[in-house]
Amino acid sequence: MTINSSYIWLLLLLVLLKHGILETEASHSRNLEALQPAAASPSQIYRTSYHFQPPKNWMNDPNGPMVYKGLYHLFYQYNPLGADWGNIVWAHSTSTDLINWNPHKPAIFPSQEGDINGCWSGSTTIFPGGKPAILYTGINPSNQQVQNLAVPKNLSDPYLIEWDKSPYNPLMTPTPENKINSSSFRDPTTAWLGPDGRWRVIIGNKLNRRGKALLYRSKDFVRWTKAKHPLHSVKGTGMWECPDFYPVTSNPIGLDTSTVGALGIKHVLKVSLDDTKHDQYAIGTYDHVKDVFDPDAVAAEKFSGLRYDYGKFYASKTFYDSLKKRRILWGWINESLSREDYIAQGWSGVQGIPRLLWLDKSGKQLMQWPIKEIETLRENKVGYPPRPLKGGSILEVQGVKAAQADVDVSFELSELKRADAFDPSWTDPQLLCSQKGASIKGGIGPFGLKLLASKDMQEYTAVFFRIFKGQYKYVVLMCSDQSRSSLNVKPDKTTYGVFLDVDPLHEQLSLRSLIDHSIVESFGAKGKACITSRVYPTKALDNEAHLYVFNNGLANVTISNLSAWSMKKAHID
Ligand SMILES: *[C@@H]1O[C@H](CO)[C@@H](O)[C@H](O)[C@H]1NC(C)=O
Ligand SMILES: *[C@@H]1O[C@H](CO)[C@@H](O)[C@H](O)[C@H]1NC(C)=O
Ligand SMILES: *[C@@H]1O[C@H](CO)[C@@H](O)[C@H](O)[C@H]1NC(C)=O
Ligand SMILES: *[C@@H]1O[C@H](CO)[C@@H](O)[C@H](O)[C@H]1NC(C)=O
Ligand SMILES: *[C@@H]1O[C@H](CO)[C@@H](O)[C@H](O)[C@H]1NC(C)=O
């Protein structure tokens, strides 16, 4: 959550409260219905077909994802009154498969002193026995950030439509004694239960430029005491938004958030850096006696290395899916349009396809893959047997709806002697990708996909690889080049890039892209790196969109496997 425009927003809220548009706890549901996501207006060329988004208005952070009585719940930061940030409530939808969704009325909206100026991000915790609880940030009448608790009103209702706020709210507040900056104290995580019977939760914070994960402990989930030391902090990183802290192993079978001491266990601390708008994570060890997190690597220590996604992906949150024993990642994907343009289209923001998340065998990074359920939307498969793709050639993948597709391609390189030399000064993969875009010929590569392409190639988004010969090993670069994605000059077309930790001599290079009208989510090397792009074609729309495999390098490559599917529309009403 950012806090700009909070003054205008405050005025708006006062007006709304005066006219009874924003519901208070005591009054009843008629006005509240008006806040429920309502139908969108027509001519919505950039709306997605299988990514989660409300029918209209602004959406940002995913909040409190969980499974309860066999139903998945997603809450999210939502402005019921417009396509711009403001008037934030917790909108709420449920699903049986994480793909098709039913909307409900907002679960949490301003109604108490502790949240009267806004209900910002937070998380759910499932107590032993299955009862859920929400911790979230509220904005109080003095515009301070405080932490609140809400619990379901009726545990027999699997939809958990009504939530009761604790009469003890706010539970955690900034005071002169604890020296917490009241403008930088937000986004509680899922709590975890220590072997000593006490709950722990972390809250995002900064002091001057030091980002912090403040630690609180509680025996009863109501009375919380701030620990003397944060779980972790790093100087110079600015505000840590939406922290997330959880255990992983190299087995895709996930672990409950409270698990400590399992075989091969590592802990992940993720923070959303307000300064850069990147979700960075570190892998390390959680010492549950000292209650501190020790990152394994030096780069991780500075939160400068690992990202969930090297494109647009922010304010993400994981949850443990006890139904299918896996850890799932949700993330908000912002527009790349100007503010006036997203206000004009009447909506802003989508959620990424939920991703299965686990630790790579190397222990040095996470792996991510779209959840299996997304494959139920696949239809009309197109497949190619292995075939060469000569240097300088391009091949159209025909027979799929190219604006709404799932494509998975693997490449094999028979020899690597044409690889260009890697200059050790190239430390910034995004910069390298922007200097060596899809149209710049190399020794090996660029090769990959041209997506959302117009027939005349005036528009396309290129997701591709390049291979360089480094001093000790080959360097594989993965890029998403948006520079030609739209004839419209206004959207942000920053090119994204990442170095992939693969050995092209012994491994196939794979690329999977989920294409959905204005979004492309790409997974390199079976999930070792992800790049999400928002693009706004003017010609490559719907049936005018095409999909190509290309090789603009000197060396030939082999397409060892290519499968593509048209995607059905999900039910997201
Ligand atoms: C609680 O939810 C159940 C299941 O939806 C419903 O039958 C029951 O009437 C609800 N109880 C109250 C007090 O609303
Ligand atoms: C407190 O946070 C606000 C908002 O980020 C910032 O403007 C202010 O400088 C911070 N104060 C301190 C002492 O860090
Ligand atoms: C969202 O995108 C806008 C441009 O459309 C940009 O100004 C803003 O910083 C982005 N925010 C995040 C969290 O990515
Ligand atoms: C690429 O393959 C073609 C045959 O399809 C061959 O004539 C050509 O020599 C190959 N190029 C290289 C650089 O190996
Ligand atoms: C080809 O790709 C498809 C889709 O990813 C996969 O199911 C299949 O196993 C692959 N085949 C081979 C031979 O790798």
From TrEMBL:
GO molecular function: hydrolase activity, acting on glycosyl bonds
Keywords, alphabetical: Glycosidase, Hydrolase, Signal
Keyword S-adenosyl-L-methionine attached: no
Domain called Glycosyl hydrolase family 32 N-terminal: residue spans: 51-370
Record domain Glycosyl hydrolase family 32 C-terminal: where: 393-566
InterPro entries in the record: ConA-like_dom_sf (IPR013320), Fructan_Metab_Enzymes (IPR050551), Glyco_hydro_32 (IPR001362), Glyco_hydro_32_AS (IPR018053), Glyco_hydro_32_C (IPR013189), Glyco_hydro_32_N (IPR013148), Glyco_hydro_beta-prop_sf (IPR023296)
SMART domains (alphabetical): Glyco_32
Signal peptide feature range: 1-26
Keyword tRNA processing: no
SUBUNIT field: May be present in two forms, a 70 kDa monomer and a heterodimer of the 30 kDa and 38 kDa subunits. The ratio of the levels of the two forms within cells appears to be regulated developmentally.
PANTHER family hit by this protein: BETA-FRUCTOFURANOSIDASE, INSOLUBLE ISOENZYME CWINV1-RELATED
Family classification: Belongs to the glycosyl hydrolase 32 family.
Identification of the protein by name: Beta-fructofuranosidase
Species of provenance: Cinchona calisaya
